[in-house]
TrEMBL record:
N6-(pyridoxal phosphate)lysine carried by residues: 184
GO BP annotations listed: cysteine biosynthetic process via cystathionine; transsulfuration
Superkingdom as given in the UniProt entry: Bacteria
PANTHER family named in the record: CYSTATHIONINE GAMMA-LYASE-RELATED, TRANS-SULFURATION ENZYME FAMILY MEMBER
Organism: Saccharothrix australiensis
Entry protein name: Cystathionine gamma-lyase
TM helices/strands, residue ranges: none
Keywords of this entry: Lyase, Pyridoxal phosphate
One Pfam family per UniProt: Cys_Met_Meta_PP
Length: 354
């Protein structure tokens, strides 16, 4: 509906507002409907999900199916696409729970680093990539991987959580499926868990909706509504977060206590050339290393504005020492999610804490 318009216009006008109606209709909590319309029961049908699915599908360029968390979206996709004995390629440096999930499935797993090299996709059913990867912020060439996957008869799925639907359109780059944890920047206020799958394959979208109805794990209408309200400011929030990430990158670059600084939006980041070819904009997540776990603890204790918290993409600047969760990264690796504070305040606070 809003395909030719800018990001800010698209997220604000993601649902058409009729005269006399609210701009964003309130959440519908019904479990049973007065029969006669399309909606019958709350497990298969909910207008609040549909409004958000329409908005997200429009941004992704496909059909979106909502799930109660990002992991629910990932697991619905994997269970729908993979059969026993299939081979799946996963990022060895991507979101850790995806690897945990697949480890419990009767499939062959091949891990590849996001930046490559990738194995041959011969005999592979599904290639799942994450770009930029969480937490390392490496980037892979989605169009090239889609070509290689399709040549081998495999599907390409992209976990687009770090990029968001405004930051990257994997379906337009040739991917078959996008998964996204809307818990992060899409909802954006650290108060909701939600996720979605988008695909250009209507048959797959229908199968995912059926799996959700039959499986019974459905999103809450209030959560869907909160995420939809958050989506309206995604353009504004991402702009401020990227501005803050750029300021922090400048401040941390060359700092004696900091190594391995990564932000794909920076001109001197190793992923920048590829990222700027395939991404539409950059977000607020940076990664860097301090000497060890104790150095990270001291940094977080001394900072007034950087909250120790997992997750990312919220209004508040947060930092997460990923090794504490078992990510295969150095003990002192910090994933910092720049929030929507003022850049000067953040830079002063972070430099002071270091
Ligand atoms: C957080 C995250 C997930 C899981 O999402 P939840 O909403 O926490 O279930 C999946 N993939 C990536 C890249 C993530 O960052």
């Amino acid at each position: 509906m809003t395909g030719d318009l800018g990001d800010g216009t698209r997220v604000v006008h993601s649902t058409p507002a009729a005269v006399g109606e609210p701009f964003l209709a309130g959440p519908v909590f019904a479990s049973a409907y007065h029969l006669g319309g399309d909606d019958t029961y709350g497990r298969p049908h909910n207008p609040t999900w549909r409004a958000l699915e329409t908005a997200l599908g429009d941004l992704d360029g496909g059909t979106a199916v909502l799930f109660p968390s990002g992991m629910a979206a990932v697991s619905a996709l994997l269970r729908e696409v993979l059969s026993p004995g299939d081979t799946v390629v996963l990022p060895g440096d991507g979101y850790f729970l995806t690897r945990t999930l697949v480890a419990g499935m009767p499939v062959e797993v091949v891990e590849a680093p996001t930046a490559g090299p990738y194995p041959s996709f011969d005999g592979v059913r599904l290639v799942l990539v994450e770009s930029p990867s969480n937490p390392g912020l490496d980037v892979c060439d989605i169009a090239a991987l889609a070509g290689a996957a399709h040549a081998a008869g495999a599907l390409l799925a992209v976990d687009n959580t770090t990029a968001t639907p405004l930051g990257q359109r994997p379906l337009a780059l040739g991917a078959d499926v996008v998964v996204c944890s809307d818990t992060k920047a899409v909802a954006g206020h650290s108060d909701v868990l939600l996720g979605h799958v988008s695909t250009v394959d209507e048959g797959l979208a229908e199968r995912l909706r059926t799996a959700r109805t039959v499986g019974g794990a459905i999103p809450g209408p209030f959560e869907a509504w909160l995420a939809h309200r958050g989506l309206g400011t995604l353009d504004l929030r991402l702009a401020r977060q990227a501005e803050n990430a750029a300021a922090l990158y400048e401040a941390l670059r060359g700092h004696p206590a900091v190594s391995g600084l990564r932000w794909p939006g920076a001109a001197d980041d190793p992923a920048h050339a590829l990222a700027s070819r395939q991404m539409r904009r950059f977000g607020g997540v940076l990664t860097f290393e301090l000497r060890d776990a104790a150095a990270v603890e001291r940094f977080l204790e001394r900072s007034a504005l950087v909250a120790p918290a997992t997750s990312f993409g919220g209004l508040h600047t947060t930092a997460d020492r990923r090794a504490q969760w078992g990510d295969p990264v150095p003990e002192g690796l910090v994933r910092l999610s720049a929030g929507c504070e003022d850049a000067a305040d953040l830079v002063a606070d972070v430099l002071g804490a270091l």
